[in-house]
Amino acid sequence: MINVIARSEIKPGCMEKYMQVLKANVPTVLAEEGCIRYEPCVDVNAGIGPEVKGDYVTILESWESVDHLRAHLATKHMAAFREAVASLRGESTINVVTPA
Question: Domains along the chain?
Answer without folding.
Answer: 2-97 (3.30.70.100)
